[in-house]
């Protein structure tokens, strides 16, 4: 399956702002709640592009350790938001969370937990969920989770709390989609 790009714009110099609609965004974010959240957390732009890397093909009853999918949202040629989901071996949730926020001193003290999977963590510019997927023995190497991370590179005119809540909505929506499409057999807990 090929990746897809949708590009929306108004003529250069226009004071109009490009709309965001469910038919334009990456499939995992095409529900009404996610579209409303994107409109809230992203800055107004004269153009948007949505670049989706769809899941790799797999047999319907197969769970694979190579599962991954992503969505990149650009506005006025700049990356505004990225969402990535990938299968990985389960590890202690604290280790996983430290890895997600490692080297990001700008987020120190602004990271808090939320209920999602085995762990959900969020700040005003990043949210992540570690979602159970496959038990030991289903995929060689142990049990597996899906790591979903939303990174906001540039945000609209919203408070830290509004941004954090919006990113939690996006990571939850993308996580539900990834859990289903990866063929996970464990409950997602999201």
From TrEMBL:
This is Uncharacterized protein. It comes from Streptomyces huasconensis.
């Amino acid at each position: 399956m090929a990746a897809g790009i949708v590009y929306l714009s108004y003529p250069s110099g226009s004071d109009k702002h490009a709309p965001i609609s469910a038919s334009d965004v990456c499939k995992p974010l095409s529900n009404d709640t996610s579209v409303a959240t994107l409109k809230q957390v992203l800055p107004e732009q004269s153009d948007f592009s949505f670049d989706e890397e769809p899941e790799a093909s797999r047999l319907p009853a197969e769970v694979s350790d190579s599962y991954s999918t992503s969505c990149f949202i650009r506005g006025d040629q700049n990356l505004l938001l990225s969402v990535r989901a990938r299968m990985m071996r389960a590890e202690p949730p604290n280790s996983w969370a430290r890895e997600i926020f490692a080297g990001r001193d700008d987020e120190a003290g602004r990271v808090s937990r939320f209920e999602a999977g085995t762990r959900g963590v969020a700040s005003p510019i990043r949210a992540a969920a570690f979602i159970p997927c496959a038990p030991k023995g289903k995929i060689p190497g142990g049990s597996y989770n899906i790591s979903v991370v939303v990174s906001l590179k540039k945000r609209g005119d919203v408070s830290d709390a509004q941004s954090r809540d919006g990113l939690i909505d996006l990571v939850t929506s993308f996580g539900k989609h990834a859990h289903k499409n990866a063929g996970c057999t464990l409950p997602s807990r999201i």
